[in-house]
């Protein structure tokens, strides 16, 4: 057996050493496109045997069950379409097995701290010795070198280092973090982009690559327009929900408890439509609207307050005004758009709906998706399929404690 | 090397930027564009350096250009606008259509600015203070993420060697990149909401004012002991109020007050030093000037030079770097009227 998930990346093997959010999310993008992904995990990587703490995302099915380490909803959400090998990389024998896997794979990707892979004797030189054409993607928080490379980093602590927090908030004196680790999903898509780029380069140039990334640089790479504007002397300010070149542009209260709508007015034609609907002077250009933006916002909110958010959005859209409700999760899963496009997919245990693949194209279908594997579920299968191990050889590794399918006691 | 035909706004522009920076030949057809978050010149310098650019392209010429391209990336304001280009009739091997809501579904022709998509995609509900208006995210996150998905899709198709057409909706890109928001609802029946800068579920994880600015702490449970060292308050390790994340959540305000008292007299530089010594996850709020002069980014040769009409400027390189290859310098070409590939 090779690929179980159909897609254009069939035939590309990925050894996934990633953890937390950015790395697993990036690998999920590759897996959804058909890459053959094997997640190589530590026995303790999903947590202990017993329920140790409340899980942010809860448990798949609502309860931790008999194997709580396999039921963390956040982990499960990110780990579809791959197989699991639970291997002790801190032992010489475990590393040897891993390097054999490297020898028959295309990509190794990890987002450990900068010290971790060298400390395990698994730096690029070791991987390249095992496979001269390997593509190795390393993505520590601040990269593997430079003054900050040993800084401890998670998405939320990296975000302000990218400059984003200086433009995010209610005012200059009230900056806000996104509080959602926004840099992680940027690093995730960047990692997926890095892998497909590297695979194509290898085909053209006949050699693998060492690919260096960081959470930090991923975040900064999205802020190019601001960073260039800063050098050119342009004003950059915290604008709350306003936009420097659109007016109106905001989040407005609707009828209901904490219900809101987002509206944007990108051009004069949209303003005229909005003016016709709500009763503004349709002749105002952007400069004129800027001068009375407080009044416009008050007028819009006077209109939205008497409408529930979906109805207001529909009415505005009927007039070609960009508008949409501030959605909660149930709003999203109940949205006719997500339902018709079958975006949320109940392939996982207990038919838990999971966000789908935003890349829709022929040959991709969620119908062949596989749920998150249990820890070490494919130890035997992968070693036999990729490395021609016999049952006895696998049994030896299990007996030696190098392969596991549950956390240590 | 592929020939890329790029048409559209910031998503197509970011997708084309990735191709251009990776050595492909990108021809950008300029179209009417949504207002950018900064000046058009700065936006163009970031997105379009290293590309050929043309304006005033007829539908017929567009079709001819598409026939010469290996990949077309077309971004439009709605699904029906994609059709007006004749997109489906082009025989380019790989075609990527990017729209706010995708090419099918009851909202396929809904109009959206990025704040609308962030609201519908579940982000806005999580940002800002409780009891106040939620906050949108400034900048082009939505479009750049959609562009990055487009780039991945196009390259995957080229790797697979089969012609294909991708339909990418920005709304779905956002939802695909959601954090624990959706499973928290489906598995815990909790609707995630906004708590200012506080991550809420891990304490302390919040933005704190310091002597000359702000810093962000993200103390997941394994770093709590180190955090007490950072604060120079080692007795907090045995304080029952703070012995676990659950108890720290229960005594959030008391803990925040302790942290604020320590940080308020410290500079960002001193806080960073102490965080490094204590090995805790902490970042300081950097201005864009500080990012541009950041010693770490400089040591990693992160910046590339982009030349437009004025003085050259620094621009972020790609988020990934191969074999420590040198960063390239790029020039922004002026758009030409009706110019085609040689």
User: What's the architecture of the largest domain in chain A, going by CATH?
Assistant: 3-Layer(aba) Sandwich
Question: What form of chain B results from the Cα inertia axes?
Answer: globular
Strand order of the largest sheet of chain B: 6-5-4-1-2-3-14
Strand content of chain B: 15-25%
| Share of helical residues of chain A | 25-40%
CATH architecture of the largest domain in chain B: 3-Layer(aba) Sandwich
Please describe what this structure looks like:
- With 409 residues, chain A is an alpha/beta fold.
- Chain A folds into two domains: 13-222 and 346-399, Rossmann fold; 249-337, formyl-coa transferase, domain 3 (2-Layer Sandwich), CATH 3.30.1540.
- Chain A is 37% helix and 13% strand.
- Chain A contains 17 helices and 14 strands.
- Chain A has a six-stranded parallel beta sheet, sandwiched between helices.
- In chain A, helix 1 (22-32) crosses helix 7 and helix 7 (183-205) packs across helix 8 (215-221).
- The relative contact order of chain A is 0.15.
- Chain B is 37% helix and 18% strand.
- Chain B is of the alpha/beta class.
- Chain B has 14 helices and 14 strands.
- The mean pLDDT of chain B is 96.
- Chain B has a seven-stranded parallel beta sheet, sandwiched between helices. Chain B has a three-stranded antiparallel beta sheet with strand order 7-8-9, covered by helices on one side. In chain B, strands 11-10-13 form a three-stranded mixed beta sheet, with no helix packed on it.
- The longest helix of chain B has 20 residues, at 141-160.
- Chain B is globular.
């Amino acid at each position: 057996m090779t690929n179980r998930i159909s897609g254009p990346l069939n035939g590309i093997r990925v050894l996934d050493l990633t953890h937390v959010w950015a790395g697993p999310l990036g690998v999920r993008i590759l897996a959804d496109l058909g890459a053959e992904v094997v997640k190589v995990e530590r026995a303790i990587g999903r947590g202990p045997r017993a329920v140790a703490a409340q899980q942010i995302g809860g448990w798949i099915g609502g309860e931790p069950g008999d194997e709580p380490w396999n039921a963390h909803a956040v982990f499960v959400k990110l780990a579809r379409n791959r197989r699991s090998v639970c291997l002790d990389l801190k032992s010489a024998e475990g590393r040897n097995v891993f390097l054999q896997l490297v020898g028959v794979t295309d990509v190794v990707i990890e987002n450990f701290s900068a010290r971790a892979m060298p400390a395990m004797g698994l730096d690029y030189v070791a991987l390249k010795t095992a496979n001269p054409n390997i593509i190795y993607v390393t993505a520590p928080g601040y990269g593997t070198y430079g003054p900050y490379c040993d800084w401890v980093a998670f998405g939320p602590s990296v975000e302000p280092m990218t400059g984003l927090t200086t433009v995010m908030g209610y005012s200059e004196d009230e900056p806000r973090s996104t509080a959602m680790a926004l840099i992680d999903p940027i690093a995730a898509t960047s990692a997926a982009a890095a892998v497909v780029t590297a695979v194509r380069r290898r085909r053209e140039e006949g050699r693998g690559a060492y690919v260096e990334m960081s959470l930090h640089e991923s975040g900064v790479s999205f802020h190019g327009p601001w960073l260039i504007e800063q050098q050119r002397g342009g004003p950059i300010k915290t604008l709350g929900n306003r936009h420097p070149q659109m007016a109106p542009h905001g989040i407005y209260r609707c009828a209901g408890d904490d219900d809101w709508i987002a509206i944007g007015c990108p051009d004069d034609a949209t303003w005229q439509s909005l003016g016709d609907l709500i009763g503004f002077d349709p002749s105002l250009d952007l400069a004129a609207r800027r001068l009375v933006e407080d009044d416009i916002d008050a007028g819009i909110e006077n209109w939205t307050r008497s409408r529930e958010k979906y109805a207001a959005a529909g009415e505005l859209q009927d007039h070609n005004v960009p508008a949409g409700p501030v959605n909660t999760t149930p709003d999203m899963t109940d949205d006719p758009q997500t339902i018709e496009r079958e975006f949320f997919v109940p392939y996982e245990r207990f038919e838990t709906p999971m966000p789908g693949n935003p890349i829709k194209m022929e040959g991709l279908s969620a119908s062949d998706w596989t749920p998150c594997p249990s820890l070490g579920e494919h130890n035997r299968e992968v070693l036999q399929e990729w490395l021609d191990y016999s049952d006895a050889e696998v049994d030896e590794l299990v007996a030696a404690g190098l392969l596991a399918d549950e956390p240590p006691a | 090397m592929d020939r890329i035909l790029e048409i559209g706004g910031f998503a197509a522009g970011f997708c084309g930027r990735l191709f251009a920076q990776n050595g492909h030949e990108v021809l950008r057809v300029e179209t009417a564009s949504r207002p950018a978050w900064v000046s058009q010149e700065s936006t163009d310098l970031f997105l379009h350096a290293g590309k050929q650019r043309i304006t005033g392209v007829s539908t017929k010429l567009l079709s001819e250009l598409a026939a010469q391209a290996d990949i077309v990336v077309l971004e439009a304001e709605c699904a029906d606008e994609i059709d007006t280009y004749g997109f489906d009739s082009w025989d380019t091997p790989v075609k990527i259509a990017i729209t706010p809501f995708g090419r099918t579904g009851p909202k396929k022709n809904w109009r959206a600015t990025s704040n609308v998509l962030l609201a519908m995609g579940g982000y806005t509900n999580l940002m800002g203070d409780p009891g106040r208006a939620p906050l949108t995210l400034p900048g082009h996150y939505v479009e750049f993420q959609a562009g990055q998905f487009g780039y991945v899709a196009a390259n995957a198709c080229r790797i697979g060697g089969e012609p294909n057409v991708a339909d990418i909706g920005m709304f779905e890109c956002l939802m695909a990149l959601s954090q624990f928001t959706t499973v928290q609802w489906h598995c815990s029946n909790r609707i995630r909401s906004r708590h200012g800068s506080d991550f809420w579920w891990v304490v302390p994880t919040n933005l704190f004012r310091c002597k000359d600015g702000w810093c962000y702490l993200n103390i997941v449970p394994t770093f709590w002991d180190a955090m007490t060292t950072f604060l120079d308050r080692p007795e907090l390790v045995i304080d029952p109020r703070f012995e676990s994340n659950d108890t720290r959540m229960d005594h959030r305000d008391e803990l925040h007050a302790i942290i604020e008292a320590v940080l308020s007299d410290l500079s960002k530089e001193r806080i960073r030093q102490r965080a490094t010594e204590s090995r805790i996850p902490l970042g300081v709020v950097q201005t864009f000037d500080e990012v541009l002069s950041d010693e770490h980014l400089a040591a990693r040769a992160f910046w590339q030079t982009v030349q437009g009409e004025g003085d050259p400027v620094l621009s972020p390189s790609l988020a990934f770097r191969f074999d420590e290859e040198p960063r390239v310098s790029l020039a922004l070409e002026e758009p030409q009227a009706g110019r085609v590939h040689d």
